[in-house]
Protein backbone atom coordinates (compact mmCIF):
# COMPACT_ATOMS: atom_id res chain seq x y z
CA UNK A 1 0.00 0.00 0.00
CA UNK A 2 1.44 3.30 -1.11
CA UNK A 3 1.77 6.13 1.39
CA UNK A 4 0.14 8.52 -1.07
CA UNK A 5 -3.12 6.67 -0.48
CA UNK A 6 -2.80 6.83 3.30
CA UNK A 7 -2.01 10.47 4.05
CA UNK A 8 -5.28 11.86 2.59
CA UNK A 9 -7.22 9.95 5.25
CA UNK A 10 -5.04 11.12 8.14
CA UNK A 11 -5.06 14.70 6.90
CA UNK A 12 -8.81 14.71 6.53
CA UNK A 13 -9.38 13.34 10.06
CA UNK A 14 -7.29 16.22 11.30
CA UNK A 15 -8.99 18.89 9.21
CA UNK A 16 -12.52 17.65 10.01
CA UNK A 17 -11.79 17.49 13.75
CA UNK A 18 -10.32 20.98 13.63
CA UNK A 19 -13.47 22.24 11.96
CA UNK A 20 -15.34 21.00 15.03
CA UNK A 21 -12.94 22.82 17.33
CA UNK A 22 -10.79 19.84 18.31
CA UNK A 23 -7.44 21.47 17.63
CA UNK A 24 -4.76 19.04 18.74
CA UNK A 25 -4.46 15.95 16.59
CA UNK A 26 -1.14 14.11 16.65
CA UNK A 27 -0.22 11.02 14.77
CA UNK A 28 0.82 8.10 16.95
CA UNK A 29 2.16 4.76 15.86
CA UNK A 30 1.56 3.41 12.38
CA UNK A 31 1.71 -0.34 12.08
CA UNK A 32 0.73 -3.15 9.84
CA UNK A 33 -2.00 -4.91 11.71
CA UNK A 34 -0.99 -8.37 12.77
CA UNK A 35 -3.77 -9.20 15.18
CA UNK A 36 -7.25 -8.31 14.15
CA UNK A 37 -8.41 -7.25 17.56
CA UNK A 38 -9.91 -3.81 18.11
CA UNK A 39 -9.81 -2.56 21.68
CA UNK A 40 -12.38 0.16 21.01
CA UNK A 41 -16.15 -0.05 21.50
CA UNK A 42 -17.41 1.65 18.38
CA UNK A 43 -16.34 1.18 14.79
CA UNK A 44 -17.52 3.22 11.87
CA UNK A 45 -16.67 1.64 8.52
CA UNK A 46 -16.90 3.02 4.99
CA UNK A 47 -16.24 1.14 1.76
CA UNK A 48 -14.51 2.56 -1.31
CA UNK A 49 -15.28 1.51 -4.87
CA UNK A 50 -13.46 2.49 -8.04
CA UNK A 51 -9.76 3.09 -8.68
CA UNK A 52 -9.18 2.86 -4.94
CA UNK A 53 -10.96 -0.18 -3.57
CA UNK A 54 -11.23 -1.27 0.04
CA UNK A 55 -12.51 -0.27 3.44
CA UNK A 56 -11.55 2.42 5.91
CA UNK A 57 -12.69 2.16 9.51
CA UNK A 58 -12.53 4.60 12.40
CA UNK A 59 -12.62 3.12 15.89
CA UNK A 60 -13.30 5.04 19.11
CA UNK A 61 -14.02 4.37 22.73
CA UNK A 62 -17.50 5.33 23.89
CA UNK A 63 -16.16 8.39 25.69
CA UNK A 64 -14.26 9.60 22.62
CA UNK A 65 -17.32 9.11 20.44
CA UNK A 66 -19.42 11.16 22.84
CA UNK A 67 -16.81 13.93 22.88
CA UNK A 68 -16.68 14.10 19.09
CA UNK A 69 -20.45 14.00 18.66
CA UNK A 70 -20.84 16.68 21.30
CA UNK A 71 -18.43 18.99 19.45
CA UNK A 72 -20.21 18.23 16.17
CA UNK A 73 -23.42 19.39 17.79
CA UNK A 74 -22.12 22.70 19.09
CA UNK A 75 -21.20 21.32 22.50
CA UNK A 76 -24.57 19.75 23.28
CA UNK A 77 -24.01 17.13 25.99
CA UNK A 78 -24.33 13.54 24.72
CA UNK A 79 -25.55 11.19 27.44
CA UNK A 80 -26.00 8.05 25.39
CA UNK A 81 -25.35 6.81 21.90
CA UNK A 82 -28.91 6.96 20.60
CA UNK A 83 -30.13 7.15 17.01
CA UNK A 84 -29.12 10.79 16.68
CA UNK A 85 -25.62 10.07 17.99
CA UNK A 86 -25.16 7.11 15.66
CA UNK A 87 -26.31 9.22 12.75
CA UNK A 88 -23.69 11.78 13.73
CA UNK A 89 -21.04 9.03 13.87
CA UNK A 90 -21.85 7.90 10.36
CA UNK A 91 -21.85 11.49 9.16
CA UNK A 92 -18.42 11.92 10.73
CA UNK A 93 -17.12 8.91 8.77
CA UNK A 94 -18.77 10.24 5.63
CA UNK A 95 -17.17 13.65 6.01
CA UNK A 96 -13.68 12.27 6.59
CA UNK A 97 -13.92 9.84 3.72
CA UNK A 98 -15.46 12.42 1.40
CA UNK A 99 -12.65 14.89 2.12
CA UNK A 100 -10.03 12.16 1.66
CA UNK A 101 -11.54 11.17 -1.68
CA UNK A 102 -11.22 14.79 -2.76
CA UNK A 103 -7.45 14.67 -2.19
CA UNK A 104 -7.14 11.15 -3.63
CA UNK A 105 -8.72 12.36 -6.87
CA UNK A 106 -5.79 14.71 -7.41
CA UNK A 107 -3.51 11.67 -7.83
CA UNK A 108 -2.76 10.76 -11.41
CA UNK A 109 -3.66 7.09 -11.01
CA UNK A 110 -7.05 7.89 -9.54
CA UNK A 111 -9.88 8.93 -11.83
CA UNK A 112 -12.90 7.79 -9.93
CA UNK A 113 -13.55 6.75 -6.34
CA UNK A 114 -16.95 6.39 -4.73
CA UNK A 115 -17.70 5.93 -1.05
CA UNK A 116 -20.39 3.49 0.02
CA UNK A 117 -22.71 4.08 2.99
CA UNK A 118 -21.10 3.87 6.45
CA UNK A 119 -22.06 1.15 8.91
CA UNK A 120 -21.67 1.45 12.68
CA UNK A 121 -20.69 -1.58 14.74
CA UNK A 122 -20.51 -1.55 18.51
CA UNK A 123 -19.91 -4.27 21.02
CA UNK A 124 -17.22 -5.88 23.14
CA UNK A 125 -14.09 -7.84 22.23
CA UNK A 126 -14.50 -7.16 18.55
CA UNK A 127 -12.25 -8.88 16.05
CA UNK A 128 -12.41 -7.67 12.50
CA UNK A 129 -10.81 -7.93 9.11
CA UNK A 130 -11.53 -5.17 6.65
CA UNK A 131 -9.29 -6.15 3.77
CA UNK A 132 -8.21 -9.45 2.23
CA UNK A 133 -4.75 -7.98 1.58
CA UNK A 134 -3.29 -5.95 4.44
CA UNK A 135 -4.48 -3.41 6.94
CA UNK A 136 -2.64 -0.43 8.35
CA UNK A 137 -3.60 0.78 11.81
CA UNK A 138 -2.85 4.37 12.72
CA UNK A 139 -3.41 5.72 16.22
CA UNK A 140 -4.35 9.36 16.43
CA UNK A 141 -4.18 11.24 19.71
CA UNK A 142 -6.73 14.01 19.83
CA UNK A 143 -8.18 16.33 22.46
CA UNK A 144 -11.37 14.26 22.25
CA UNK A 145 -9.51 10.99 22.89
CA UNK A 146 -7.80 8.29 20.84
CA UNK A 147 -9.00 7.40 17.37
CA UNK A 148 -7.76 4.32 15.58
CA UNK A 149 -7.87 4.61 11.81
CA UNK A 150 -7.67 1.30 9.96
CA UNK A 151 -7.01 1.45 6.25
CA UNK A 152 -7.43 -1.68 4.19
CA UNK A 153 -7.05 -1.06 0.48
CA UNK A 154 -6.74 -3.74 -2.18
CA UNK A 155 -3.80 -2.32 -4.05
CA UNK B 1 -38.15 -2.01 -0.33
CA UNK B 2 -38.45 -3.19 -3.92
CA UNK B 3 -38.34 -7.03 -3.87
CA UNK B 4 -36.53 -7.00 -7.21
CA UNK B 5 -33.56 -5.47 -5.37
CA UNK B 6 -33.61 -7.78 -2.35
CA UNK B 7 -34.52 -11.21 -3.73
CA UNK B 8 -31.31 -11.71 -5.79
CA UNK B 9 -29.32 -11.59 -2.54
CA UNK B 10 -31.40 -14.36 -0.99
CA UNK B 11 -31.17 -16.49 -4.11
CA UNK B 12 -27.40 -16.00 -4.37
CA UNK B 13 -26.92 -16.78 -0.67
CA UNK B 14 -28.92 -19.99 -0.92
CA UNK B 15 -27.24 -21.09 -4.16
CA UNK B 16 -23.69 -20.22 -3.20
CA UNK B 17 -23.81 -21.70 0.30
CA UNK B 18 -25.32 -24.84 -1.14
CA UNK B 19 -22.77 -25.08 -3.95
CA UNK B 20 -19.73 -24.30 -1.84
CA UNK B 21 -20.58 -26.00 1.43
CA UNK B 22 -23.57 -28.27 0.68
CA UNK B 23 -25.51 -26.53 3.43
CA UNK B 24 -29.20 -25.96 2.72
CA UNK B 25 -30.49 -22.58 3.81
CA UNK B 26 -34.24 -22.07 4.03
CA UNK B 27 -35.88 -18.69 4.45
CA UNK B 28 -38.48 -18.63 7.22
CA UNK B 29 -40.41 -15.55 6.11
CA UNK B 30 -40.09 -12.80 3.51
CA UNK B 31 -37.93 -9.68 3.56
CA UNK B 32 -39.18 -7.35 6.29
CA UNK B 33 -38.35 -3.70 6.73
CA UNK B 34 -35.59 -3.44 9.39
CA UNK B 35 -36.69 -0.79 11.87
CA UNK B 36 -34.11 -1.16 14.64
CA UNK B 37 -30.44 -1.93 14.86
CA UNK B 38 -29.38 -5.52 14.33
CA UNK B 39 -28.19 -7.50 17.34
CA UNK B 40 -25.64 -9.83 15.79
CA UNK B 41 -25.76 -13.63 16.13
CA UNK B 42 -21.97 -13.55 16.55
CA UNK B 43 -20.41 -13.59 13.08
CA UNK B 44 -21.13 -10.75 10.68
CA UNK B 45 -19.80 -10.33 7.17
CA UNK B 46 -20.60 -7.12 5.41
CA UNK B 47 -19.79 -5.90 1.95
CA UNK B 48 -20.82 -2.54 0.57
CA UNK B 49 -21.36 -1.58 -3.04
CA UNK B 50 -21.79 1.56 -5.11
CA UNK B 51 -22.77 2.52 -8.63
CA UNK B 52 -26.02 4.13 -9.74
CA UNK B 53 -27.32 3.03 -6.33
CA UNK B 54 -25.39 2.59 -3.10
CA UNK B 55 -25.96 -0.06 -0.50
CA UNK B 56 -24.78 -2.85 1.71
CA UNK B 57 -25.19 -6.59 2.12
CA UNK B 58 -24.88 -7.99 5.64
CA UNK B 59 -24.73 -11.70 6.37
CA UNK B 60 -25.17 -12.45 10.04
CA UNK B 61 -24.62 -16.05 11.14
CA UNK B 62 -24.73 -18.10 14.28
CA UNK B 63 -21.24 -19.39 15.07
CA UNK B 64 -22.36 -23.02 14.60
CA UNK B 65 -23.50 -22.33 11.03
CA UNK B 66 -20.45 -20.24 10.19
CA UNK B 67 -18.15 -23.00 11.46
CA UNK B 68 -20.00 -25.65 9.46
CA UNK B 69 -19.74 -23.62 6.24
CA UNK B 70 -16.02 -22.92 6.70
CA UNK B 71 -15.36 -26.54 7.61
CA UNK B 72 -17.16 -27.82 4.52
CA UNK B 73 -15.31 -25.43 2.22
CA UNK B 74 -11.84 -25.72 3.73
CA UNK B 75 -12.00 -29.35 4.81
CA UNK B 76 -10.62 -28.39 8.21
CA UNK B 77 -12.21 -27.66 11.55
CA UNK B 78 -11.68 -24.25 13.09
CA UNK B 79 -12.55 -24.01 16.77
CA UNK B 80 -11.18 -20.51 17.05
CA UNK B 81 -13.27 -18.12 15.01
CA UNK B 82 -10.59 -15.48 15.38
CA UNK B 83 -8.36 -17.49 13.08
CA UNK B 84 -7.45 -15.37 10.05
CA UNK B 85 -8.32 -18.18 7.63
CA UNK B 86 -11.75 -18.53 9.22
CA UNK B 87 -12.45 -14.81 9.03
CA UNK B 88 -10.99 -14.58 5.53
CA UNK B 89 -13.29 -17.38 4.40
CA UNK B 90 -16.34 -15.58 5.81
CA UNK B 91 -15.28 -12.43 3.97
CA UNK B 92 -14.86 -14.40 0.77
CA UNK B 93 -18.30 -15.91 1.21
CA UNK B 94 -19.92 -12.48 1.41
CA UNK B 95 -17.82 -11.36 -1.57
CA UNK B 96 -19.02 -14.31 -3.66
CA UNK B 97 -22.67 -13.91 -2.67
CA UNK B 98 -22.58 -10.13 -3.13
CA UNK B 99 -20.77 -10.45 -6.47
CA UNK B 100 -23.25 -13.01 -7.76
CA UNK B 101 -26.27 -10.92 -6.75
CA UNK B 102 -24.79 -7.72 -8.18
CA UNK B 103 -24.02 -9.43 -11.49
CA UNK B 104 -27.68 -10.42 -11.69
CA UNK B 105 -28.88 -6.90 -10.79
CA UNK B 106 -26.46 -5.28 -13.25
CA UNK B 107 -27.64 -7.58 -16.03
CA UNK B 108 -31.30 -6.92 -15.30
CA UNK B 109 -30.96 -3.17 -14.89
CA UNK B 110 -27.95 -1.04 -15.76
CA UNK B 111 -27.10 -0.25 -12.16
CA UNK B 112 -23.36 -0.58 -12.73
CA UNK B 113 -22.87 -1.68 -9.12
CA UNK B 114 -19.40 -2.64 -7.90
CA UNK B 115 -18.34 -4.23 -4.63
CA UNK B 116 -15.96 -2.77 -2.09
CA UNK B 117 -13.86 -5.22 -0.04
CA UNK B 118 -15.67 -7.46 2.43
CA UNK B 119 -15.32 -6.86 6.17
CA UNK B 120 -15.90 -9.47 8.87
CA UNK B 121 -16.73 -8.79 12.51
CA UNK B 122 -16.71 -11.22 15.39
CA UNK B 123 -17.54 -10.13 18.90
CA UNK B 124 -19.78 -10.24 21.92
CA UNK B 125 -23.09 -8.39 22.05
CA UNK B 126 -22.40 -6.71 18.75
CA UNK B 127 -24.93 -4.26 17.42
CA UNK B 128 -24.83 -3.24 13.79
CA UNK B 129 -26.56 -0.16 12.51
CA UNK B 130 -26.74 1.63 9.21
CA UNK B 131 -28.10 5.05 10.11
CA UNK B 132 -30.58 6.88 7.89
CA UNK B 133 -30.68 4.14 5.26
CA UNK B 134 -33.60 1.82 4.57
CA UNK B 135 -32.84 -1.84 4.95
CA UNK B 136 -34.74 -5.12 4.83
CA UNK B 137 -33.96 -8.37 6.64
CA UNK B 138 -34.88 -11.97 5.97
CA UNK B 139 -34.40 -14.73 8.53
CA UNK B 140 -33.11 -18.08 7.37
CA UNK B 141 -32.70 -21.42 9.07
CA UNK B 142 -30.55 -24.45 8.45
CA UNK B 143 -29.73 -27.70 10.23
CA UNK B 144 -26.62 -26.08 11.63
CA UNK B 145 -28.03 -22.80 12.86
CA UNK B 146 -29.71 -19.57 11.88
CA UNK B 147 -28.63 -16.70 9.74
CA UNK B 148 -30.11 -13.44 8.59
CA UNK B 149 -29.55 -11.53 5.40
CA UNK B 150 -29.88 -7.76 5.57
CA UNK B 151 -29.90 -5.69 2.40
CA UNK B 152 -29.71 -1.91 2.54
CA UNK B 153 -30.11 0.55 -0.30
CA UNK B 154 -29.69 4.29 -0.03
CA UNK B 155 -32.99 6.12 -0.69
CA UNK B 156 -34.73 2.74 -0.62
CA UNK B 157 -33.21 1.81 -3.97
CA UNK B 158 -34.64 4.68 -6.01
CA UNK B 159 -31.98 5.98 -8.39
Automatic annotation (TrEMBL), chain A:
Protein name: Chemotaxis protein CheX
GO process terms (BP): chemotaxis
Species of the source: Anoxynatronum buryatiense
Lineage: Bacteria, Bacillati, Bacillota, Clostridia, Eubacteriales
Key words of the record: Chemotaxis
Domain annotation Chemotaxis phosphatase CheX-like: ranges: 42-126
Top-level taxonomic group: Bacteria
Any Pfam family the entry gives: CheX
From TrEMBL, chain B:
Domain Chemotaxis phosphatase CheX-like: 43-136
Keyword Kinase attributed: no
Domain of life, per lineage: Bacteria
Pfam families in the cross-refs: CheX
Alphabetical UniProt keywords: Chemotaxis
Coiled-coil segments on the chain, per record: none
Keyword Lipoprotein carried by entry: no
Protein's name in the database: Chemotaxis protein CheX
Source organism per UniProt: Anoxynatronum buryatiense
